């Protein structure tokens, strides 16, 4: 019986010698393995990036909490409820919460020539842009410093800029809002939410400093993924009520868009996984078919080996070893392609590749390739080992 090292060397050399026959099988298994590694390694990162694109998701991962005004006679006689800083901090600690933002709305007016233009003003904190998935088309979006120092800066929606200045390239201009002069630092991209383009956005503390009765009565909470939305929505009322009075609290979740998105993603995932399984299945069938062909073409060789004293087990192990070498070669090639795919995907998503996941799934892929080689090559190997010596030698 051959040594294991010699057996593997001979088997691998046989695979190389017959590479043209096995090329389709190698590519099929390699591509299926690479797809398996890329999808599982980058799956959570892709989902996270999809959840950050809130315009694409229609705000499905955003939960809106607000206090209604004057819903009862008693509430009209008491001071309106509003979100306290400690409440926002407590909400931020809920598992699954990615970010929170406070905002409030005030009526705004400015002048354009001889006419007065109404311009709704949103007082927002520095987290608003990330939570809502808003980017600047020109200039910049104000941050924490403007909020803390109560700078008189404003970000205009493009439609608001058009109404006030009759153009959208307005960065650096000054605009009078409610008798206060603001510096325009940027314009924003409204995405699919066209109403955002009609508003002016100023730092929340700046707006509250000028309008003392203006209270932050709206809290937007963004979840890490759509899977976190039900859990966060269930926990949110209790957390808020544990920190402050919240008799008129209302929590809104976009359940229908969320269900629609999850349904679409589920079908896409099923299609991708089915494609990978089908590819690997075709690869396994290719190994089986290739090994059956090899057994048939080497029938006389099998007969001669048996005549020279080779046992059935020796013949079976030889062909099974060739099947395993073929499958493992394809698996290793797939791991290499998968590594390249993970690096490309990470670069596109502007993130670091999770190499710990890659190594885990690469190991699983090699193990699967080993099982696939054994499973696909077992029957052809068994058939070769059971050949009759005389019939095999006489085979033409």
UniProtKB/TrEMBL annotation:
Membrane topology value: Multi-pass membrane protein
Q: Name one GO molecular function term.
A: transmembrane transporter activity
The record's subcellular locations are: Cell membrane
| Residue ranges of every copy of the ABC3 transporter permease C-terminal domain listed in the record | 274-388
- Family that this chain belongs to: Belongs to the ABC-4 integral membrane protein family.
**Which top-rank group of organisms is this from?**
Bacteria
TM helices/strands, residue ranges: 21-42, 264-288, 324-346, 358-379
Q: What is its main location?
A: membrane
The signal peptide here is none
Q: Which UniProt keywords apply?
A: Cell membrane, Membrane, Transmembrane, Transmembrane helix
InterPro entries for this protein: ABC3_permease_C, MacB_PCD, Macrolide_Exporter_MacB
| GO cellular component terms, semicolon-separated | plasma membrane
| Limits of the MacB-like periplasmic core domain | 26-237
**One Pfam annotation, family name?**
MacB_PCD
UniProt protein name: ABC transporter permease
